[in-house]
Amino acid sequence: MISIPDISAFDEKAWRELAARAIEPNPFYEVDFLVPACRHLRNGKNVMLLVATKAGRFHACLPVRTASASGKLFWPVISSWVQNLYGSLGTPLVSPERAVEALRCLLATLRGDGRCRRVVVLESVGDDGPIASYLRRAADDLGVTIGTYAPGERVVVRCQEDNFDALPTRVKRERKARVRTWRRLCADWGHPAVLDRARDRDSATRFLALEASGWKGRSGTAMASRTEDAAFYREVTARFVASHRLRMYSLEVGANRLAMQTSFWANRALFVWKSAYDERFARYAPGAQLKLQVFDLAREDGVQWIDSCADAINDHWPRLSHGRRRITTLAIGGRGPMHRPLLKLAVLLVDASGKLHRISRTNFRYKINCATRWPRRRSFLSQPETLQSHGALHDLG
């Protein structure tokens, strides 16, 4: 285990190298996202990074936390950390070399030994990619039960396949409507420009102000509503700018910024993290207009696909693209069918923990105490004998 805020320069470099070659990209599990999250966000200090290594090289990593009130179950529960408000994907970072072995090592370590067996819950995992398949193989190798819960879909745009003539009728209809709205916008205000403001010094401040000016500001859910959340956003964007992987698209006409979108570039994929628009221009649907413009810009930029990071029931995204990816929660427990009810209960517990975090975020201040806590620093990197008992990578030929 590695304390994320206290990560060493050596481990940070290994983490970055893993993210660069990961089978499935996930910027929300990269160092530039998780270090600020653990530093600024509520309960972040209880999150640790579990890694599978060989010769100092990371082969898989997963941020984990103990689930609230897990002592009320017969077994304690440990889950991956998906920051419910600001992180939306829980797929582990896994290198293509020895992927199944690395995941088996992670799962075995998470489950523990003897009387300390835990139920493992992995939230919001991409279910139609190779990692989900490798996780199931790793669980099968360990002889444990794995259950699938809370299946859902999110919208994706496959840029090279986004041919208008091949789109479903409903998507064509929506895009044509947005073209008509675009023409009205041009007639009323002049032709808008779409610019990448990522490297502007005041881009983070402008985005936070734009988000706070709308319904999120009125409801208290804008990032600027809490000092810690605003600091988190500023640090994340600064880190991704430094690695040249932040895209801060802005739809502008004259001195007005109609909409802004904060996105991360990861392995030729674009992850749309946060977006906001000026409600004074709502009749022109500036948020949807910016999304459509970004489709073309991303294609020109060599992006293969865009992850909306939004559910398929979101207002705009499903009408703009027909692409989908499956997202699910996986629970790993003991052997046999009798463990299925326990896995379901564990998933409900972790889900309730996330809901309570969201409640506290809207100023109800409900404090969640962990039943157990990881030590502040306990690195398996420096304890090869511990990993060896769980099939560590350095035991493989």
Summarize the structure in words:
The protein has 397 residues and is α+β, with helices and mostly antiparallel strands. The chain folds into two domains: 2-153 and 327-395, Aminopeptidase (3-Layer(aba) Sandwich); 163-320, Gcn5-related N-acetyltransferase (GNAT) (Aminopeptidase, 3-Layer(aba) Sandwich), CATH 3.40.630.30. Helices cover 38% and strands 24% of the residues. Strands 1, 2, 3, 4, 5, 6, 7, 8, 9, 10, 11, 12 and 13 form a 13-stranded mixed sheet that branches. It is globular, with a radius of gyration of 22 Å.
Highlighted features:
single chain, 397 residues, alpha+beta, Aminopeptidase, 2 domains, 13-stranded mixed sheet, 24% strand, globular, disordered C terminus
